[in-house]
Design goal:
Distance between the termini: 58 Å
Oligomer: single chain
Number of strands: 0
Number of domains: 1
Number of helices: 9
CATH class: Mainly Alpha
Radius of gyration: 20 Å
Shape: globular
Strand content: under 5%
Mean pLDDT: 88
């Protein structure tokens, strides 16, 4: 009989999901307020987080539970490497490092992989289903806000191995519901998914300061820009 884990995860994380969407950085992003200097550290943090998650899921690909959500076509590491090359240049490996929140996130992934690998489902669900659900919308926002050429700096949002995202998500949820888990384990998976949302919120909160500073600088530049030689008239927003 189905354990309805997909529904339990959806219902059990609604509040955390809403809270994450209301963090200042995310609200600004959704409104099209984002620029490269505050966005690229997020890409860097995602690189370390997804790398850890994908390594641990790969490690447990034969595990009776983890094997059910082992879909290499979801992997984001290589796409993030392409984006990092764009935002930081070919020497990006020498300059990027995980933030404090990203380090804690990675540590948690390693910890559950060693002790309770079934909880990797929580992180896979939280990250990948979100990426598939809103990825194209976020890509469009990023392209417009940062004046990106289509396909440049947004590889993270592309899933070339998944031609039908809706069908894939349905298959993923069916895989969750096919797991042979007791109620206590399902509860721990939901709890860990909520914890994952909390870790994401901390990532976004770290970036708010740099975004506010960048917005302030852009506003200053706009207000003090001169119209024509010798003019002291304030410029209007572009």
């Amino acid at each position: 009989m189905s354990i309805n884990l997909a529904a339990k995860l959806r219902e059990g994380t609604k509040k955390a999901h809403t809270m994450a969407e209301n963090v200042g950085f995310v609200k600004c992003f959704l409104k099209g307020v984002v620029e490269k200097n505050s966005y690229r550290p997020l890409v860097a943090n995602f690189y370390f987080i997804y790398s850890a998650m994908e390594e641990e899921i790969e490690r447990h690909r034969e595990h009776p539970v983890v094997s059910k959500i082992y879909f290499p076509e979801l992997n984001r590491k290589q796409s993030l490497e392409k984006d990092l090359n764009y935002y930081y240049g070919p020497q990006w490996r020498d300059v990027v490092a995980p933030s404090k929140a990203a380090k804690a996130y990675v540590q948690r992934i390693r910890e559950i992989s060693a002790k309770e690998p079934e909880l990797l489902i929580s992180h896979s669900y939280t990250r990948y289903i979100g990426d598939l659900s809103g990825g194209q919308i976020l890509k469009g926002i990023a392209v417009r806000a940062m004046n990106l050429s289509d396909g440049v700096g947004t590889d993270f949002y592309e899933f070339p191995g998944i031609p039908d995202e809706k069908a894939f998500k349905n298959n993923y949820r069916q895989s969750l519901d096919s797991l042979d888990l007791d109620d206590a384990t399902c509860d721990r998976i939901v709890d860990e998914a909520n914890a994952a949302f909390g870790m994401n919120m901390k990532l976004f909160m770290e970036l708010e300061g740099s975004l506010v500073k960048a917005i302030g600088q852009m506003l200053y530049n706009t207000l003090t820009r001169k119209r024509g030689t010798g003019s002291t008239e304030l410029a209007t927003a572009e």
